[in-house]
Amino acid sequence: MLPVSMQQDSLLLNLYIQPKASRDKIIGVHGNELKIAITAPPVDGKANAHLTKFLSKAFKVPKGDIIIHKGELGRHKQVEILTPRVIPEQIADLLDTRSC
Fold first, then answer.
1. I need a labelling partner for 51 at 20 to 30 A (CA). Which of 1, 24, 37, 73 fits?
2. CATH number of the domain that residue 35 is part of
3. How many independent structural domains does the chain possess?
4. Residue 45: CB atoms within 10 Å
């Protein structure tokens, strides 16, 4: 399993989420996942909502274009981003190294 992969026009991310962090940040590769720190606590869906908002800003897409396929209630998630307009440098680097 790769942390990041392109599937047609969509980007598929396998994530490990660190809630209640001091700031929102893409940390980097964590095993077979991409680690992302978010400030929201893992209570009542707040972390998922915050993650969606963070990813929508990072990839310049509407929140509705962020789909959580797996892991609604856990730290390990599979998220699809429909036609991202921007790909953050850390993720672009991962995509480049996979294609070599």
1. 1
2. 3.30.1200.10
3. 1
4. 12
**pLDDT by residue (tens digit) across 39-87?**
999 999 999 999 999 999 999 999 999 999 999 999 999 999 999 999 9
Tell me the two tokens of residue 73: 């209630």
**Coil, helix or strand at residue 13:** strand
Whole-model pTM: value is: 0.92
- The dihedral through the CA atoms of 38, 25, 28, 65 has a sign that is positive
Contact between residue 74 and residue 96 where contact means Cβ atoms under 8 Å apart: no
| Burial class, 33, CB count within 10 angstroms (exposed 0-12 / middle 13-18 / buried 19+) | buried
CA 91 to chain centre: 10
